[in-house]
Specification:
Bound molecules: guanosine-5'-triphosphate, potassium ion, magnesium ion
Number of helices: 18
Largest sheet: 6 strands, mixed
Helix content: 40-55%
Shape: flat
CATH class of the largest domain: Alpha Beta
CATH superfamily of the largest domain: P-loop containing nucleotide triphosphate hydrolases
CATH architecture of the largest domain: 3-Layer(aba) Sandwich
Number of domains: 3
Strand order of the largest sheet: 3-4-5-2-1-6
Radius of gyration: 30 Å
Length: 492
């Protein structure tokens, strides 16, 4: 039961009942719950005008989109609940596309409760389900499905780059490309259908089919580029999975704590302290980083708990987008004479950790930790832009670390722009892969030596069109909509 249902004492089943009643007028607190300066209560639906005429002294509806100050009263008891701003948004020029209005009242819990109770007493008014305003906007054609997803992401965005990506998507940058592709396919289909229907009886443009083929080939190239983007958008949306690896006592947990500014992971001088994976989510330079501290890798260990911890560390290593390898300068110092260079030592270190297949130049940052203990000044001879010299104790080198982390994140997540928005959900990728596949089958048929079957070719384009239609929500199912709208909060 939601807090609103509790406030209004509305039984749970009623919201399920109303789900099938799209004629109802919905209302909800759209600003955050709790004491605050101003609370915004939103109303949308055929009877939205009642909320104004029944709850204020206005005889007529106010001028659209202009705030008016009014006493707001309960429609039955006529008791004044609060004085606040009232706004009227006649459809279709409203967020949901329906007649809508808003009450901006004082953000006290009892005030909000009073307004919600007053609205609930109006005929055919009901508390909105999570995301119901947006769902109505989608069903009224105000937003397509990728824009809805962008809006959901905008509400969830925790970093600047995530906000940027979500905002671009919510304002249609992604659907613009998809709609352009759809128009091209529609045109191609019309041309092929013309060929099927009239080629034998009428003279059609010479080379019409060849033109279609060339267009589809170009589209396939564009689709390839869009699909082979290194999953940048997905990484930005979900966070870059980063794992800290290294020998026991290298300072992995100290590093995690330093980056998240709190003692999230236990630090002791005892080797083998960390066993479970400790995960934190950070905002580094506007990019989301999902950072995991792991058990130190010690291939000689006989301890079953430590071995299980190491298994978990190696499992994360295989799934990680970015690796932070921690090297203890004291360990290097003790054997430095045996190696021609630090690089040489590193290779051996990595193989000793059982990470021999690791490509430590790609998406890997090497941390030379404990430089406060570098009494022999060994670090002076190490000049590698991928090696950060750090002391988790004195925090020397932390700025370099943040710098190099940000650089890696920028490359991994990319910088989505209006012209080149990134796709960022598995749903999009799957639908586009199917679309690409269907176009490939079209090209295969068109390139057949014996006369290609234009009916089959048309069918592949129809299928590809359906894939794009699903992507932007022209073809959809209640099931998909439920998944997408469940991420919204009440009032949006
Ligand atoms: N002097 C100094 N000590 C450090 C530094 N970083 C970590 N330590 C110390 O090194 C010891 C081990 O640190 P941890 O962070 O627990 O190391 P770990 O790699 O997580 O160790 P395990 O979880 O056991 O694998 C602790 O006593 C830390 O205080 C550093 O930069 N300088
Ligand atoms: K330790
Ligand atoms: Mg540790």
């Amino acid at each position: 039961m939601t807090i609103f249902q509790r406030i209004l004492n509305i039984p749970l089943s009623s919201s399920i009942f109303y789900r099938f009643n799209s004629n109802s007028t919905i209302f909800a607190l759209s600003s955050g719950l709790g004491k605050c300066g101003v609370a915004v209560v939103r109303v949308s639906g055929t009877n939205a005008n009642y909320a104004i005429t029944q709850m204020t002294n206005l005889k007529n509806l106010p001028e659209p989109r202009k705030a008016v100050l009014q006493n707001i009263k309960h429609p039955l008891t006529k008791e004044i609940i609060d004085k606040g701003l009232v706004l009227w948004f006649p459809g279709p020029r409203s967020f949901s596309g329906e007649d809508s209005c808003e009450f901006h009242v004082h953000g006290g819990i009892a005030v909000v409760e009073g307004i919600l109770n007053a609205l609930n007493s109006l005929p055919n008014f009901k508390l909105a389900d999570p995301g119901e305003f947006t769902k109505r906007a989608f069903l009224n054609g105000k937003l397509d499905l990728t824009e809805v997803e962008g809006l959901a992401d905008l509400l969830q965005a925790e970093t600047e780059a995530q906000r940027k990506q979500a905002f671009l998507q919510s304002t249609g940058s992604l659907s613009k490309s998809y709609k352009k592709w759809k128009d091209l396919l529609k045109q191609s289909l019309a041309n092929i259908e013309a060929d099927i229907d009239f080629a034998e009886t009428e003279t059609l443009d010479y080379g019409l089919l060849e033109k279609v083929e060339q267009n589809i080939k170009n589209l396939c190239k564009e689709l390839e580029n869009h699909l082979n983007d290194g999953c940048k958008g997905e990484l930005l949306r979900n966070g870059v999975k980063t794992v800290i690896l290294g020998e026991p006592n290298a300072g992995k947990s100290s590093l995690l704590n330093l980056l998240c500014h709190r003692p999230a992971s236990i630090v002791t001088p005892i080797s083998g302290t960390t066993r479970d994976v400790i995960e934190v989510t950070l905002n580094i330079g506007g990019y989301p980083l999902v950072l995991a501290d792991t058990a130190g890798l010690n291939i000689n260990s006989q301890d079953v708990i430590e071995i299980e911890g190491m298994n978990r560390a190696r499992d994360l290593y295989r799934k990680a987008d970015l690796i932070i390898l921690v090297v203890n300068i004291q360990s290097y110092s003790s054997v430095q004479e045996r190696y021609v260079s630090f690089n040489d030592y590193l290779k051996n270190y990595i193989s000793d950790l059982g990470l021999s297949d690791m490509n430590f130049r790609k998406n890997c940052i090497i941390i030379l930790n404990k430089i406060d203990l570098d009494t022999r000044n060994l670090s002076a001879n190490i000049c590698d832009k991928n090696v950060v010299k750090l002391s988790c104790k004195s925090e020397e080198g932390i700025i370099d670390l943040i710098d190099i982390l940000t650089k890696h994140l920028k490359v991994l997540c990319g910088e989505p722009t209006q012209e080149h928005p990134s796709m960022n959900q598995l749903r999009h990728r799957q639908e586009l892969e199917k679309c690409y596949h269907n176009l490939q089958r079209f090209l295969k048929e068109s390139e057949r030596k014996e006369s290609p079957d234009t009916v089959i070719m048309a069918e592949y384009i129809r299928k590809a069109l359906r894939n794009l239609g699903k992507l932007i929500g022209e073809v959809t199912s209640e099931e998909i909509l439920d998944i997408i709208f469940k991420d919204f909060c009440i009032g949006k």
